[in-house]
Structures are given as structure tokens and as C-alpha cells.
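Question (not urgent): is this output format expected?
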Amino acid sequence: MNSRVITVVVTDDSAFMRRAIQKMLEKEPEIRVVGTAASGEEGIAMIERLRPDVVTMDVEMPGMGGLEAARAIVERRGPPIIMVSALTREGAETTLRALEIGAVDFIPKPDSALIDIVNVQRELVEKVKHFGSRGAYLRAMQAARGERPTRPIVPPPPAPAPPPPPARPRPTTARPAGGFTCVAIGTSTGGPVALSQILPKLPAGFPIPIIVVQHMPPGFTRPLAERLDASSKIDVVEGVDGMPLSAGTAIIAPAGKQLRVARGAGNVRVTLADDAQKSLHVPSVDVMAASVGETYGSGALGVILTGMGHDGVQGLRVIKDRGGYVLGQDEASSVVYGMPRAAAVAGLVDRVVALDGVTRALCELTGTLYAPV
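Got this back:
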């Protein structure tokens, strides 16, 4: 990890919350909170004066709210913004809008009995460290705008040693179009924006069902599904226990539950359950993808998109072992090249595609006419 200290401005109208977030961050010697602001206006002024590497932004504040402040910071090409959102429908919807305009990620507000404070602290620290790099920030902004990367204005700080090159994808026989029966998509950081550039471009006649795991806290997956549904020709819904899978429908795994699929009398249905294994992610890409691989065999088509960590490797391995096929997002278009890279290193990715090429690839592999929007 780079030895340079990452500087942060914390913006929240609650003095208690400002102290709580500062305490979380400053447990790490590599992170220093250089300022705290009680409003959007104060936060913008402080950011211009202190030039921090990262800013955390409360979603709901009196006066200039988090969405308006985030928009102003993005327009001024300010530092990466991590939204801090209450677990409410209004908070979720505002957070999703903030991601669409350029905020890089979000965490749930650490004041609810419904969330695990230790996990929130871990996620916050991990995200601040990642986006504290100007190179990472530039890639995040370009991916959020759907742009191809250009040379960074400020190069990212050097890593102590170059990472090992990704393993080559497994040699596979070219798959004929139309041989797949279910798509399994996994994503995390950067996923809401990535999904908004994939699902709305699919044609209404897309011939097979889609299952999506997006790492999110409870309360966020239904607004995400509704926003994607409103902009898509296919149906996009939050999963419900017992729901049958159907062609032309994308099911978003609900936060807080592990989603699997099971074949019953003549059809395949969603099964939802509490997480008995104490997994790091609930829902988990591993759990969902393994279930799709076991149920659909060689008809399973896996897609691994932007995200931190390595969730998905075990599940995609099941898809590959049963004769399925895997698409992996490329590094250049990923906000965080973690999950796709882990799958590539494991030799599980058959084809690497840029974000703007995922929909075309899905159409090609399913024998569907692709009509660019």
C-alpha cells in the first residue's frame, strides 16, 4: 500500500456522525481527516480550500443536500465522493441519483441497529484507501460517464511491486449463439452505474432470464430494480421467494438474503434464505452463480463486473466446471478491477469485454438482434 497519507473531508449535519466517521477513519495510520463540515455549502468551501483526496457526503442535510453538493463537486472536478446514506427509501433513491451523477460509491450510515458497524468501518476504510488514488478516481469518473479512459492528469502513486499478470482465460470451444438458458451477473462497487449501461440496452425480446447480485445494504435493491425497470425494455424486479424465472426478466437479488435458483415442476424458481454461513456478502455472487451453474449446467452464462474483492470466483468456477461460459469486464472500464481480475487470474473468464460491449456480447451469445441505443 502506498505510504502517502490519504486526506479526507467529512460532511454531515450531525456532530455525532462527523465524530463517528472521523474515528473510524483515523484508526488507520494511512488516513487523516483534515476537516469536517456541517452542511453541503461548508463542505464545498472546505474541499476547495483543503483539496482532500476523498470526501464523505451525508445524503440528507438541511440547506444544500448531499445530492446537490455532490453535483457541484463533480462539476468542479473535485475529489471522489463516498455518499453516507440512511437506510430509508428516500436515502436509497437519493444515493442512486448521486452515483448516476458521479459519486463513486456509498456506505450505509453507521447509526442503525440494522447494520454491522464493524463491516461498515471495514468498507469505509477500504473504499477511502482505494479512491484516495487520483488514478483510481479518474478511472471511476470516466467509467461513470461511460467514457473510454485517457491518460491520467496526475499519475497514480506507484505500487510497491507490480501485481502478477492475469492468467490467460481457459481455452474453450467457441460457443454457438442461442445455447444459453440463464445469465448470472455479479457486481459490487460501480455496479449500479454499470447495470444502468447494460440492462436498458437489452431488447424487449431478450430470450432468457437474468439473475443479478449487486452488493448493497437492505433497502437499496428495490429502488435500484425500480430505476432500472423504468429505463429498460425488459422487466427488472427485486427477487421474491418462489418467483419463477422467465425470459426477458432480470431479477435483482434482495439485500440481506442469499439467492439461489431451484428447478421444480416444470420451471426454475428463486429461493431466498438467511445467510447461515456468515458470508462477507449477503447476497453473494458465489452463492447465486454456483446455484445457476448447478441448475443450468452448460446453459449458464456468467458475467462478472466491476467490484472490490473476489466474490464470484467460487460460483463462476461451478459454472465453468459444468460447461458454462463467463464474460469478464475489462480493467479500463471498471471502477474497481477487483472481482473481474480475481476471476481472470483464476482462469475462469472466457471473454474480456469493455462495459459498453457487455450488452452486445450478451445478444451475440444468445442469438438476439442487438440494436444500439
